[in-house]
Amino acid sequence: MLLAKQNLRLQKIITAIAILLLVLKLIAWQMTGSVAILTDALESIVNVVAGLIGVYSLYVSAKPRDYDHPYGHGKVEFISAAIEGSLITFAGFIIIYEAINNLVHPHPIQQLDKGLVLIAITAGINYLAGAICVKTGMKNNSLALIASGKHLQSDTWSTLGIIVGLIIMLFTKIAWIDSVVAILFSFIIIFTGYKIVRTSIAGIMDEADDALLKKLVVTLNNQRKVNWIDLHNLRIIKYGGTLHLDCHLTVPWYLNVHEAHVEIDALANLVKKEYGESMELFVHSDGCLDFSCKICSIQACTVRKHPFEKTIEWTMENISTNSKHRI
Length: 327
Description:
Layout: H1 2-32, H2 35-61, H3 76-104, H4 112-140, H5 143-172, H6 177-204, H7 210-222, E1 230-239, E2 242-251, H8 257-275, E3 279-287
Parallel strand pairs: 2-3
Antiparallel strand pairs: 1-2
């Protein structure tokens, strides 16, 4: 809950910054009449709308779980990111339209030097805010913050490209450079929007996170306990900043309920040490069967039916199967 409040507070700050930058860019556009600067301002309008959507989504996701939402409200962050990604993509196409229109009907540009100074200031603020957003989002597993941060960073790179193009135009006096620069960087904006939408859809559909699963498998293999004979049917589901992990842990069949729970607690402590309180575990304990002897390395076992042959190393593939491993 503390992380959720931290995410919401940061998103409010980001939204306030987006409003300030929009005002600066509109002033720069009014001063210069540059279509490239206008397209940058149009994207900032999207930043403001997306920021407001992000604030609402983080407000909802921070609500405690209830009867209607037993896993919490974190999924709303995926919806927020999908809307933001769609808005970014839409802004990219608007930029292309305005740039082509400016090629056909050129607008006079004035006070370009002063406009460039204002735009450069917005680029610096954008990048810093975006970097903080992405870093906090990664730390707190918040897709909404990550989406906002990447949006701001993409806005920074497009702004820098526009600045370079306008500087060239300032010295060469070639008017069409303004529109060409806008078109080139609109494709970067569209691609960024696509990636955000793709990630959000993956979250809504509970698509497997290969990077997260790979990291978890490495941790489990490196710190495996002798009584953890097997691990299977492992699944990770994201609900905003919360990760839910389900798995089946095979332990010696002769352990009583308390002893089996000790092994489950050890597994839970290991995972939470790596991922913090953002990870929730639902572990089902299984008793070993006769065929488990061949992969069990417990040396003092007095009820062994078969000699130990080898330990099966857990991988991203075999740890997800819905059956006990055997040789």
